[in-house]
Amino acid sequence: MLDHHDVYLTSAAEYDELVSAEDHEQHILPALNAIRPLAGLDVVELGAGSGRLTCLLAPIVRSIQAFDLSPAMLAVAQRKLLAGGRTNWRVQEADHRQLPLADGVADVALSGWSICYTVTWYQENEAWRAELGKALAEMRRVLRPGGVIILLETQGTGQTTPLAPPHLADYYTYLDAAGFASTWIRTDYRFASQAEAARLVRFFFGDDMLAHLGPQPEPILPECTGIWWKT
Predict the structure, then answer these.
(1) CA–CA separation, 18 vs 40, rounded Å?
(2) Which of 12, 30, 132, 213 is least surrounded by CB atoms within 10 angstroms?
(3) Which residues make Cβ contacts (< 8 Å) with residue 216, sequence separation at least 6?
(4) Helices (runs of H) and strands (runs of E) counted in the chain
(5) DSSP labels for 166-201?
(6) Which among 79, 51, 76 is positioned nearest to 65, based on CA atoms?
(7) Are the C-beta atoms of residues 45 and 114 closer than 8 Å to each other?
């Protein structure tokens, strides 16, 4: 398994293959709309990566501004967004903790599977609470009155019911204590073949996760996703 920091900088195409296989039953968009109907809203997205959520929301929202630290990831996102033929988006390099935006420009500040890295990359020196606080403060800053922060994070790869990964348990407790509401959904991966599944799962999750793949010709890897939100 590659270091995830290196994945985001150097393996954007393979990462996009993996995440494109996730949520094959399309549970994410209904779950987001249940929190805040997205049609006609202005969205700021942190940690957009290869554009998984950006491309999902662009046909619905009024505008989406998507930020990520990795130019390789954003290049993939931009290519997909251009292919979609829409013009209500932009992508730009930026850190979660310092967005190049004025105050109060969005109705929704969204981040999928990304704010967690302000925790995991700063756990050794116990600075994660301060760094997480900076990212959440930026999300609040760019919201209009009544806007909502929405965070998506893993609640367990290879699991059919949610269980916080040990390295993220304190983060999720922090969100609960900060007044975030939460729910969870299944966002299982479905791959085109056993060979594709083995290649992509090994690439990002490592050999141990291969045991959780289903036996089907188009194998399923269970995934639970938590969603936290706060107005």
Answers:
(1) 30
(2) 30
(3) none
(4) 9, 9
(5) GGGHHHHHHHHHTT-EEEEEE--EE-SSHHHHHHHH
(6) 51
(7) no
Structure token pair of residue 27: 């549970």
- Which residue matches tokens 């204590």? 177
Residue-by-residue pLDDT tens, the chain, 231 positions: 457 878 888 999 999 999 999 999 999 999 999 999 999 999 999 999 999 999 999 999 999 999 999 999 999 999 999 999 999 999 999 999 999 999 999 999 999 999 999 999 998 878 999 999 999 999 999 999 999 999 999 999 999 999 999 999 999 999 999 999 999 999 999 999 999 999 999 999 999 999 999 999 999 999 999 999 999
Which one-letter amino acid corresponds to residue 34? Answer: A
Is residue 62 within 8 Å of 40, Cβ to Cβ?
A: yes
CB-based contacts of 82, cutoff 8 Å, min separation 6: none
User: Which residue has 């935006």 as its token pair?
Assistant: 101
